Amino acid sequence: AQSVTQLDSQVPVFEEAPVELRCNYSSSVSVYLFWYVQYPNQGLQLLLKYLSGSTLVKGINGFEAEFNKSQTSFHLRKPSVHISDTAEYFCAVRSEGGSEKLVFGKGTKLTVNP
Amino acid sequence: EAQVTQNPRYLITVTGKKLTVTCSQNMNHEYMSWYRQDPGLGLRQIYYSMNVEVTDKGDVPEGYKVSRKEKRNFPLILESPSPNQTSLYFCASSLGRLGSQYFGPGTRLTVL
């Protein structure tokens, strides 16, 4: 069975600073990886996903993530954050074969301060 | 407009009173799913459906039922709700198992 660990439950940063939200996964088979964002009082929205190919994936709102198979990680980065990036971010994993389940991490609350 | 709708958005009920939360999507998606979100636990998958009449358990199916009689609808049924089912529930759909999931606005359920 797969699992996801988001190493930081809260990340405070100042506006225009870079940010990295960390995600590690565990799976005995190949995986597909996703990052979702949840703005206050809203549903989730897909930021980006890794299915295959280039390990550097670019998403919406200037975010990108790098898949590292040897370290079983899929960290999310943005070079310069805005106040509007304040939200909760979820990493999720699905196995390449077998189970159709999508497993989410517990989330990281990103707070961007002026 | 492509969307996933859920009803009701808010519900307060009492232990043991059967309830149904509806979910409908207008994108002709095959894959639909229900999640619950609890503080500190993230989202946990309750049930999912890969197509009409095809459903399977997620990680926390106990106390819930689902049905998929039509492609667009995927209701979540709580036959005998208990206080530990107080949570924020999300329905989601995608074109296939690797497609981008579209989430509904959420249903906040309180069971007294």
Structural overview:
- The complex is a heterodimer of chains A (about 110) and B (about 110).
- Chain A has about 110 residues and is mainly beta.
- Helices cover about 0% and strands about 55% of the residues of chain A.
- With about 110 residues, chain B is mainly β.
- In chain B, the strands form 2 sheets. In chain B, strands 2, 4, 5, 6, 9, 10 and 11 form a 7-stranded mixed sheet that branches. A 4-stranded antiparallel sheet of chain B has the order 1-3-8-7, with no helix packed on it.
- Chain B is globular.
- The chains are: A mainly beta (about 110), B mainly beta (about 110).
Q: TL;DR of this structure?
A:
The complex is a heterodimer of chains A (114) and B (112). Chain A has 114 residues and is mostly beta strands.
- What structural category do the secondary elements of chain B indicate? mainly beta
Listing every helix as H and every strand as E from the N terminus to the C terminus, the arrangement of chain B reads EEEEEEEEEEE
The strand count of chain A comes to: 12
* Sequence stretches where pLDDT stays below 50 over 5 or more residues of chain A: none
Overall pLDDT score of chain A: 92
Strand content of chain A: over 45%
What's the overall average pLDDT of chain B, rounded?
94
What gap, in angstroms, lies between the N and C termini of chain A? 41 Å
The Rg value of chain A, from CA coordinates, equals 14 Å
Strand content of chain B: over 45%
The count of DSSP E runs of length 2 or more, i.e. the number of strands of chain B, is 11
- Distinct helical segment count of chain B: 0
> Helix coverage percent of residues of chain A?
under 10%
Q: Between the first and last Cα atoms of chain B, what is the distance in angstroms? A: 36 Å
Which chains make the largest contact? A-B, 22 and 25 residues
Question: Which class best fits the helix and strand makeup of chain A?
Answer: mainly beta
Tally of contiguous helical segments of chain A: 0
Report the oligomer.
heterodimer
